[in-house]
Design a protein that fits this description.
It holds the Pfam family CTLH. Helix content is 62%, strand content 3%. It is built from six helices and two strands; from the N terminus they run H-H-H-H-H-H-E-E. Strand 1 and strand 2 form a beta hairpin. The longest helix is centred in the first third of the chain and has 18 residues.
Length: 138
């Protein structure tokens, strides 16, 4: 894909997200191998990539991600950040508006749900990929 060839930062962030997903799914051996083969060489070329890689690999040191100082990498916001970066690169390459509306709307949805959580029981969207409403826990 031409966009990835001309945007090494985007390519690195996609690979970083893949590593995060491997770690999230408990595939430690696969994650380590992937980090060594795919991401470490890029870290040698770019100091900021190396720092991001080290931060991501630090997730492997924790069994309980809630106590992990870099646990935010596992939040849905990290996926959204990577998706927004991909969308912006695609739109820019096609000479469209750089900031698509969908990521902003999803962020607003997440914010609104977080605001409502303590105040009301309501049908909530927990999985943004399916947008399926889930009944509130009673």
């Amino acid at each position: 894909m031409q966009i990835l060839d001309t945007n090494p930062q985007l390519f690195f962030h996609l690979q970083q997200q893949r590593l995060i997903e491997l770690i999230r799914n408990g595939k430690v051996d696969e994650a380590l191998e992937f980090a060594q083969e795919e991401l470490a060489p890029r870290g040698e070329e770019n100091q900021s990539f190396l720092e991001e890689l080290e931060k991501t690999v630090a997730l492997l040191a924790f069994e309980d991600f809630s106590n992990c100082p870099v646990g935010e990498l596992l939040d849905i916001s990290q996926r959204l950040k990577t998706a927004s970066e991909v969308n912006a690169a695609i739109l820019t390459s096609q000479s469209h508006e750089k900031d698509p509306k969908l990521p902003s709307l999803l962020k607003m949805l997440i914010w609104a749900q977080n605001q409502l959580d303590d105040k009301a029981a309501y049908p909530r969207i927990n999985d943004l990929s399916t947008a399926r409403l889930e009944d509130p826990a009673v």
